[in-house]
Design goal:
The structure is a homodimer.
Chain A: E1 4-9, H1 20-28, E2 31-35, H2 36-39, E3 49-53, H3 58-70, E4 74-79, H4 88-97, E5 107-110, H5 115-123, E6 124-125, E7 131-135, H6 143-155, E8 159-163, H7 173-186, E9 190-195, E10 203-208, E11 221-225, E12 231-233, E13 236-238
Parallel strand pairs in A: 1-4, 1-5, 2-3, 2-4, 6-13, 7-8
Antiparallel strand pairs in A: 8-11, 9-10, 9-11, 12-13
Helix pairs in contact in A: 3-4, 6-7
Chain lengths: 244, 244
């Protein structure tokens, strides 16, 4: 039996957004490895072992998945959204680079619908013009680097998708991010708060950035700060294609 | 019969990357409207009318779709990738805003796997850290705005996904973009050229940006200029999560 390590994205929550490619990989798996809330999305069945782990256990999780695949098992590491966007793919490659004995292992990455695309679709088309994605978690990067990127993104007039805006362990960062963006002249821009997008708890709010309050976001929220030309049309919010 | 206008993304090319949500919308449609190469991906069946149009006909296409939906038909406007990323969603909302009589129409946007996610998955995880997406077509925005964004994106050390890098009608822009990025100090960064990703013609090349030649890209190519910390591990290219 030849092992295989598949790094797959489950999309933002709705099962109708899981690609057939990922569904096929899960149907063929012997082991699913991931953060507990994502593993809980996988139906139990005979012959499938579910390995759920805590948050911030990315490297241990990746190492466990690699060990299982080296034993000949067909392992799927699951992330929500897309596995390559602030998710497990980078962690797996970090472990792979530190494990020369694993470098012949069969590995594949299966993309998914990342949260900002689902949030944008619900709101209209706020990512219809140039945009960026910034992870507001400063667990693995210094906060000043985040502030610099926010300022440059504002100056570039990118729409700005903010991932992981706020958690219990980092309650202050998002408030600072909002201040940085206001100081950078983005107060009039539309801010979209997409909570638990495509799930039963979905809630989408939009308001001028200057009226946004930090407590509007949590770790299940994806925030899009629209670019300066973004408009409302009825309930829809969209970035026109043409800028002058 | 109540009309519905659905704006859907078909993903980058592989049918296994079309979400079940989009497949269901297509199965229920009376009309599919889009750029001819994307409409050609939809299987003909009784009761379905396919409306294929030329490139750069986005507004006419959106208006036609809206007219059909207003007549009570179930219309799906198809884009490749995600419809909200440099694709049809913004064009539909532009037409909607100019058509007050259409603003009660039922509209929904169904996200898809956009090209940069599929390209990143094939290469490894080059979008595992903060990144941006820039459309290099200057049909609808002035070229100096593109150059400014490229410089700011380089300064922010974003990975940079370049959509529509080069076409027969715009052969020069991509060469200038490469020059701007080299002048901005990105010569040593890894550039990934993902051609026709997930299709039978897929080809992925990666090399230092300073060695990249403009003719390596065409309109079916998605280019990712990696951030400065991105590394190779065997055949894989990935952005480590941690930066100092």
């Amino acid at each position: 039996m030849t092992g295989m390590l598949t790094i797959a994205g489950l999309g933002p929550g709705d099962e109708a957004l899981v690609t057939p490619e990922v569904s096929a990989a899960l149907a063929d798996a012997t082991d699913v490895v991931g953060y507990a809330p994502y593993v809980s999305r996988i139906a139990a069945r005979e012959g499938l072992v579910l390995h759920a782990s805590d948050n911030r256990q990315e490297l241990q999780r990746a190492a466990e998945a690699m060990r299982l695949a080296a034993e000949g098992r067909r392992v799927v590491v699951v992330s929500s959204g897309d596995p390559g966007v602030f998710a497990m793919a980078s962690a797996v490659f970090e472990v792979l680079e530190a494990s020369p004995q694993s470098q012949g292992l069969g590995i594949r990455v299966l993309p998914g619908v990342t949260a900002m695309l689902a949030a944008a679709a619900r709101a209209g088309a706020p990512l219809g013009h140039d945009f960026c994605a910034i992870n507001l978690s400063d667990n693995l990067k210094p906060w000043p680097a985040i502030e610099t990127r926010l300022r440059l993104a504002a100056e570039a007039d990118f729409a700005i998708a903010l991932y992981n805006p706020r958690s219990a362990s980092r309650p202050e960062g998002f408030a600072r991010a909002l201040d940085v963006l206001k100081q950078a002249g983005c107060g009039d821009r539309i801010a979209i708060f997409a909570h638990a997008v495509t799930t039963a708890e979905e809630r989408i709010d939009a308001l001028p950035l200057q009226d946004a309050r930090p407590e509007m976001a949590d770790m299940r929220t994806l925030v899009i700060v629209c670019n300066s030309t973004t408009r409302r049309c009825g309930r829809w919010i969209y970035a026109p294609r043409r800028v002058s």
